[in-house]
């Protein structure tokens, strides 16, 4: 397992490609719930262009389900709005090392997705759900993006216009049920250059340690 400082990784990306850095906040769209269990999540997607055909996508994901719902967030997948058919999106680091790279994944009934992370790399299954993110728990996931148009991608490129390019899986709920949700975009937050520089310096000074494919 690779161990890194996640904020330092973000800082490197923003220092080099800060002009593209932006953040999108998203939560679960209750109307898309398959079982209407009340399971819910919130997420922040931070994308920054690095150099050449490379960019960095950092996803901070929280299980915001009520304690009465319980259960675990066990996987998520997303699409990428790229014109490069040979793109790669590889999970490099994860705060929960039971999450593995899904690569291209079928997330029934929502269809196929380009990339993601889940227990054992399996969005639909993945073994014991208790290894996932419990209610109130936060996971941080860092993806290396390689695409010819990496310099023109933004955080929204991984969510679609309405957030419905992002699907999340819940299992082991209190009633023994499970659920699946699509995202619903809340807000896009462009980062001005001054804020990016500040984030970069902050990242270089903090030690938030996390542990560690494409189609």
Features:
215 residues; mainly beta; Immunoglobulin-like; 11-stranded antiparallel β-sheet; two-stranded antiparallel ribbon; 41% strand; globular; disordered N terminus; disordered C terminus
What does this structure look like?
With 215 residues, the protein is mainly beta. The radius of gyration is 16 Å and the shape is globular. It has one domain (22-189): Immunoglobulin-like (Sandwich). The protein has 2 helices and 15 strands. It has helices spanning 6-17, 193-205; strands spanning 3-5, 22-28, 41-51, 54-63, 72-78, 88-94, 99-101, 105-106, 112-113, 115-119, 133-134, 138-146, 166-171, 179-190, 209-211.
Q: Report how far apart the termini are.
A: 22 Å
Task: Provide the residue-averaged pLDDT.
Answer: 84
CATH class: Mainly Beta
Q: What is the number of beta strands?
A: 15
Tally of discrete structural domains: 1
Mind telling me the CATH superfamily name? Mu homology domain, subdomain B
Poorly predicted regions: 1-19, 193-215
Largest sheet: 11 strands, antiparallel
CA-atom Rg in angstroms: 16 Å
Strand content: 35-45%
Helix proportion of residues, in percent? 10-25%
Structure annotation, total helices:
2
Name the overall outline: globular
Helix-strand category: mainly beta
Order of SSEs, N→C?
EHEEEEEEEEEEEEEHE
| CATH third-level topology | Immunoglobulin-like
What is the name of the CATH architecture?
Sandwich
């Amino acid at each position: 397992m690779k161990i890194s400082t996640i904020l330092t990784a973000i800082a490197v990306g923003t220092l080099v490609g800060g002009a593209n850095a932006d953040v999108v906040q998203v939560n679960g769209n209750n109307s898309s719930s398959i079982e209407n269990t009340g399971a819910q999540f919130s997420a922040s997607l931070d994308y920054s262009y690095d150099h050449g055909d490379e960019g960095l996508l950092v996803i901070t994901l929280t299980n915001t389900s009520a304690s009465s719902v319980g259960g675990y967030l066990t996987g998520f997948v997303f699409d990428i709005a790229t014109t490069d058919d040979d793109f790669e999106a590889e999970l490099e680091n994860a705060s929960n090392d039971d999450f593995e790279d899904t690569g291209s994944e079928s997330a029934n009934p929502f269809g196929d997705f380009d990339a993601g992370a889940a227990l054992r790399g399996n969005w639909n299954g993945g073994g014991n759900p208790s290894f996932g993110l419990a209610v109130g728990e936060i996971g941080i996931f860092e993806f290396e993006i390689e695409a010819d148009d990496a310099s023109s991608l933004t955080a929204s490129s991984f969510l679609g216009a309405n957030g419905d390019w992002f699907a999340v899986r819940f299992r082991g709920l209190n009633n023994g049920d499970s659920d699946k949700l699509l995202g619903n975009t809340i807000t896009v937050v462009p980062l001005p250059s001054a804020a990016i520089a500040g984030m970069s310096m902050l990242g270089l000074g903090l030690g938030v340690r996390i542990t560690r494919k494409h189609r």
